[in-house]
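Mods, move this if it's the wrong board.
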Amino acid sequence: MGSASGTLIGTLTVPSTGGWNDYEEKSCSITNTTGLNDLYLVFSGPVNIDYFIFDSTSVAPTPTPQQSLLVGDINGDEKINSTDYSILKRHILNINRISGDALARADVNGDGKVDSTDLMMLHRYLLGVITSFPGNNQQPSPSPIPSPQPTINPNAKLVALTFDDGPDNVLTARVLDRLDKYNVKATFMVVGQRVNDSTAATIKRIVNSGHEIGNHSWGYSGMANMSPADIRKSIADTNAAIQKYAGTTPKFFRPPNLETSPTLFNNVDLVFVSGLTANDWIQSTTAQQRASAIINGVKDGTIILLHDVQPEPHPTPEALDIIIPTLKSQGYEFVTLSELFRLKGVPIDPSVKKMYYSVP
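Not the wrong board. Structure tokens:
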């Protein structure tokens, strides 16, 4: 309190979560304090912090025997969805406090109090990571959340669509139109020099549609023989542009031309990905030829490498009209790269010096 070297009121050890954007809820106790004070968070190493809260430990009332409460259904509409998550978050942040039965239903872990642990568990439930709550006496019957979520079955057939060399307001929009049409999510590996005010609306559309953004370097030249300083600058400048216009930090890197070297691996703190290609950088390939290359080569866990931006004619959007329905009919589900790694149980770990063609 008071300054970065002031009175220490709490200490929290934060081990690695496996990735810069892989968040975990952590908590610690603080010493009794009173009055209005300036608070400083002091870190001894690199930390990516999402938010922090003070929790005075709200106690949930114990329901009477005749009550039948669906834990997690905070607003009492007999559904568990993002509305309940929003209510709980606002309660914990002291924006709108809840009480009575709503407070009892908010204690999803059944420990007699409502705090950030319950919020984390409700979030995991909505993502499909867990299917029930410790604090529930009955199996929840949730309603679907607004945006489609990937399957939680680790044995399901999963595939990740990725697109290189954008963004472009016209060409990327054609790909986004197809993804919207079929309600699938993808990952866009963007080129830093194209991420600017002129493409801001397209970047916003990518993010708002639930797609992921990765790093494809600042330019188009191969990086295998670049100096360490030039490599780090290319990655950092691209990350900064993505952070500015998309509000996210990339987890994945696709090297230009898929060229790698020990120097490149040692100076890029992101997970390298390649993928199954369709020669869609060659203008003479047709939509059907591009689609056939993907459909004939795909397997469970495949990363598909396509391009949203290439010189015209560029029928990759038309190829998606073949690829997506065909693979869906074969039992595949389309997920982002982060979802593919998570659902396959593979850590997003930049210290693993390899380039993933598929997961695992």
